[in-house]
Amino acid sequence: MRLWIRDPLAIMAQSARGGIVVEDGRITELVPSGGRPENHDGIFDASRHVVLPGLINTHHHFYQTLTRANPAAINKELFPWLKALYPIWAGLTPEALRLATRLALTELMMSGCTTASDHQYVFPRGLEHALDIQAEEALALGMRMTLNRGSMNLSIKDGGLPPDSVVQDADTILADCERVIARYHDQSEGAMLQVALAPCSPFSVTKELMAGTAELAKRCGCRLHTHLSETNDEDAFCRATFGCRPVDYLEDVGWLSDNVWLAHGIHFDDGEMQRLGNAGVGVAHCPASNMLLASGQCRTLELEAAGVTVGLGVDGSASNDNSNMMEGVRQALLLNRLRYGAAAVTHHDVLRWATEGSASCLGRSDIGRIAIGMQADLALFTLDELRFSGAGDPLAALVLCGAHRADRVMIKGRWTVEDGIPVGIDVAKLRHEHGAIAKLFAEAA
After folding, report:
1. For the chain, how far is it from start to end, CA to CA, in angstroms?
2. What pTM was estimated for this model as a whole?
3. Together in a domain, 182 and 261
4. The domain containing residue 74 runs over which residues?
5. Same domain flag for 105 and 240
6. Residue 418 falls within a domain, yes or no?
7. What are the pLDDT digits (tens) for 42-74?
8. Cα separation, 168 vs 154, whole angstroms
9. How far, in Å, CA of 177 to CA of 443, rounded?
């Protein structure tokens, strides 16, 4: 079926004021203002809608939806925050992860997100098949996903932060990485599932595991992801433990490569940013988490000037505390204007980070833009709420006036959100079931 999404109020694409044509899950035609496609089988009237490429979330921790606003972790910076929550996360079960994943994916999709990358690194006993659970939930919902097979093998007794109950040994980790890659890593155009290997951080993983993971990723053709340079505490840990700063450590273990994207990247100096840019490394900017944990401000414009790709992430739902990509776009604008000034960072910049930049971080060239041949992943927003009344520029209004919920979402040419409601999901039931399990985690605090 050739569907003409006709005459949008505004669209984030050149030469498409008359809309776009979608066929077989791809964008096949851009329609100029006043034009009509040569042929079509159906029409969706988008005259009330602002049309964006589907937003792409480059960094998240779905399981953390179970510990939002947790009393043990409120008003703490990263290291004490982690120490408070690790023992609680040790109680993560397959059922809890399944509901956490379902809720996070649904919440993201309702905010206009069509592709999500989740960093699952907590593996208490009984949760060995965490990535299988996440793959099942993403496919059932129709969401594109990069499954990050995370890992931790440096516990408290070894000088790390996490308790023994949530870490695994290196052999177990690498064996499961190979299993997950073989089962889920689809490198074809339009893939719904891909895999990245994602040791958690320098303070929870040994150098040997970091190096071994890089070798495996190169051999299997997948990407690498980790937290890096998020806080000054991390810098101090690297100096004390490894005798170097985080970027030096990254180079030492074979991670200065164009198949790597890093979460946060706040405390790089000028020389380090240039080294990252020369290597083709990307950075997932996570403004909400950085503000909530008071970690610092990512130097986004300097990173881009150095050749580093910048994408956007909501980060964990316990350090945000939500999973809303459009809200993350607005937060990125406000935080970066505070650093660089009102004219230096525009709504076009932050929307680009959340789409094309994020796609590049994930190694995807088939999503993130509205163009002929790209996957038909779209987020459509209306300006019907009171907050938008009086807005002159519809595209800018989404960011400046605070859009937070898409009216329609399309993934691979299929509507997955209609009239603001996710297709096939009972939101009230999901809220009840997830809330019941989350209550147990709150009681454990």
Report:
1. 52
2. 0.97
3. yes
4. 55-361
5. yes
6. yes
7. 999 999 999 999 999 999 999 999 999 999 999
8. 9
9. 33
